[in-house]
Write a structure and sequence with these properties.
The protein is mainly α and about 240 residues long. The longest helix is centred in the middle third of the chain and has 33 residues. The chain is flat.
Length: about 240
């Protein structure tokens, strides 16, 4: 059995790292300070002393996750490649930490990591040629697309975890649910055609859907820039 970790060897960084591992494996509903203390070999009071509260711990873990997203060098990268890299980095980060999408609606999440990401994201769209609030609108359009794209996988992870925790066979229950959804979908002509042609499993995102959608949005933003520049030309 692991003995208690002395307070002077327990650091905020160690707590955040262990909390992130626990959140990744058990979700928001699986994070409790006692379980975290067991992982660290320390008392719950020592953890509270370093992080203040469970809510603050979630906020600290979330902010650390934002630091995982690489920021492309705009002196060496065109704005579209930079926008694609940041959108892809965000999607990959959310796939590693699906609990973060859950946390958006329940916790106040903003810190240095998130601010670092958001500031550079605005710089990307300013480099493209969007000024003022237009840069915010462009960044928000891509950002919300990525969040929506990541939501399906995060929801499936959360649902699978809940079904397993309730004592059922999660995969079997999900297969039964998918079979019922497919049966309902087959009553509608366009959905039935896709099921018959085996284009995709019903309810699943099509292959390449993220890349297609992202490039479509960037195409639209680039066209918007072209239209703005055309109106600024002298007549």
């Amino acid at each position: 059995m692991v003995g208690p970790m002395p307070r002077d060897t327990l650091t905020r960084e160690k707590i955040i790292s262990a909390a992130t591992d626990l959140l990744d494996s058990a979700g928001l509903e699986g994070l409790n300070i006692r379980a975290l203390g067991d992982r660290l070999g320390t008392a719950a009071t020592a953890i509270y002393w370093h992080v203040g509260s469970k809510d603050n711990l979630v906020a600290l873990a979330a902010d650390q996750a934002w630091n995982e997203i690489p920021l492309p060098d705009l002196a060496e990268t065109g704005w579209r490649d930079a926008a694609t890299a940041m959108a892809t980095g965000l999607k990959e980060m959310l796939a590693r930490h699906p609990w973060l999408l859950q946390a958006f609606g329940s916790f106040l999440l903003f810190g240095q990591g998130k601010a670092r990401h958001d500031d550079h994201l605005l710089a990307v769209y300013e480099a493209a040629g969007f000024g003022g609030s237009r840069a915010d609108q462009a960044a928000s359009a891509v950002f919300t697309f990525v969040l929506g794209n990541a939501l399906g996988a995060a929801a499936e992870t959360s649902l699978t975890r809940r079904l397993s925790r309730d004592g059922g066979n999660a995969q079997e229950l999900l297969r039964d649910h998918l079979a019922k959804a497919t049966e309902i979908a087959s009553q509608f002509p366009r959905l039935r055609t896709r099921l018959d042609d085996a284009i995709t499993e019903y309810g699943a995102a099509p292959d390449g859907g993220f890349e297609f959608g992202l490039q479509a949005i960037l195409d639209g933003l680039e066209a918007e820039l072209g239209a703005e520049r055309a109106t600024d030309l002298p007549r």
